Amino acid sequence: MDWLEEKVEKTERYIRNLSFRKAMIAYILVLAAAVFGLSYLTMAFCGQMEMAEWARLEQEGLLDMVCSDISLWGYGHRFVHGTDLFKIEILELIRAWCPFFYGFSGMILTICIFYKKRLARPLSLLKDSVARIRGNDLDFHVNYESEDELGSLCDSVEDMRMELVRGKEEMWRLVERQKELNAAFAHDLRTPLTVLRGYTDFLARYIPEGKISEEKMQDTLALMTDYLKRLEDYSRTMKGIRSIDEVPFCPERIELKSLEKKIEEVSFALNQIRDVKIHYRGYCVKSTAGEKTAVCNTAGDQAEDSAEVTETVKISADDNIIMEVLENVLSNAIRYARSEIEVMSDYDAAEGEFNLTVRDDGDGFSEEQLNKALKPYHKEYESGEADEHFGIGLHICREFCKKHGGTLNVANSIRGGAVVTASFSVLT
């Protein structure tokens, strides 16, 4: 019987998918056939009953006279007693009006069946969907398995619901991006302002004592001017973008020595405002195939031929992004270090990578922090003190590293404290 059930199911599916016009025609044809059949059967039955009644009256001698006129139904009008005549007239009335009765009753029944089968469920779905959408509830699905006009309308409402969901999600994404951008802007202004404060503290401390040469003072003022210009450019950039992803990436050919000098300057300025001591140990590793390996230690221990190598090495990098990452990582390290921070840099020519590593002597990351430190709005380090920290610094650094073709990694040092390593692709 499986084939029969399959045929029935297929037929039901076909009928369910008919358009309203075809469905109405089908219902009317069925109604007409039913009315015709019932009318024929009723008229035939009433005719037989009427003939039987006339025959009985004639056999019983109850007829008074027979008129030669022929009635509408082919029988002469016979004048009989009132009671017997009433029965015959009722049968004739039924024969005459049964098609109209069946037609009217069948039309009402057909409309009710059509409404129940084809209109009730989809209209209920549409009414409920509109009410839920009006109530800002989009957590539902409009599912009506039919290909008729109301099925298409239900599909359209479902498409509209999905568009509203996508629009709402996009709106939340925009809100979150704007929130992230505002936090990033406020966060990234802190460290440059702190660097400028370090330079002003340095000048205010040593100028009255006459311990700063004119050349050193001019260099410091030039550095402060550069930082002010950088803050101005940064503010202009952040004003014209909608998310961190839109921060421009503009790599240029620069000397590695100039980049290391900027790192030294930032370390020097931040050393002026906190009790935490920042040590910068920069290394340039030259290790390409067929060339001599040379190392430059900018802390003072230079290897053979290292100065020449450092002066001539050029990389393709966006120094603004690299410095943003350094400043953010240093800002976090300063917040949680006890007394010392170590900054290291190295360049691997074979891999085309420039790496920055910042290690502090604080408490380091907990297990939970290692898993969540790079997520936005999450505190990077464990701290029992309440502060105004946004919890977005390392997330920004990771996005900047990705924009520069690199990565950001966090770990705990075997000597204690947190270690953050940023890598940048600087292929020339």
Largest sheet: 6 strands, mixed
- Which word captures the global form? rod-shaped
CATH fold group of the largest domain: Heat Shock Protein 90
Q: Helix and strand string, N-terminal first?
A: HHEEHHHEHEEHEHEEHHEE
Mean pLDDT across all amino acids = 77
Tally of contiguous helical segments = 10
The CATH superfamily of the largest domain is known as Histidine kinase-like ATPase, C-terminal domain
CATH second-level architecture of the largest domain:
2-Layer Sandwich
Kindly name the structural category: alpha+beta
**Quaternary state of the chains:** single chain
Strand content: 5-15%
Percent of residues in helices comes to 55-70%
Tell me the layout of helices and strands.
Elements: H1 2-16, H2 20-59, E1 65-70, E2 76-79, H3 82-134, H4 149-206, H5 214-239, E3 252-255, H6 256-270, E4 277-286, E5 294-297, H7 306-312, E6 314-317, H8 319-336, E7 340-348, E8 353-360, H9 367-372, H10 393-403, E9 408-412, E10 418-425
Parallel strand pairs: 4-7
Antiparallel strand pairs: 1-2, 3-6, 4-5, 7-8, 8-10, 9-10
Helix pairs in contact: 2-3, 3-4, 4-5, 4-6, 4-8, 6-8, 8-10
Written overview of the protein:
This protein has 428 residues and is α+β, with helices and mostly antiparallel strands. The chain folds into two domains: 2-137, no CATH class; 171-425, Histidine kinase-like ATPase, C-terminal domain (Heat Shock Protein 90), CATH 3.30.565. It has helices spanning 2-16, 20-59, 82-134, 149-206, 214-239, 256-270, 306-312, 319-336, 367-372, 393-403; strands at 65-70, 76-79, 252-255, 277-286, 294-297, 314-317, 340-348, 353-360, 408-412, 418-425. The strands form three sheets. The protein has a six-stranded mixed beta sheet. It has a two-stranded antiparallel sheet with strand order 1-2. It is rod-shaped and about 155 Å long. Mean pLDDT is 77; it is low at 65-79, 288-295, 298-309 and 380-390.
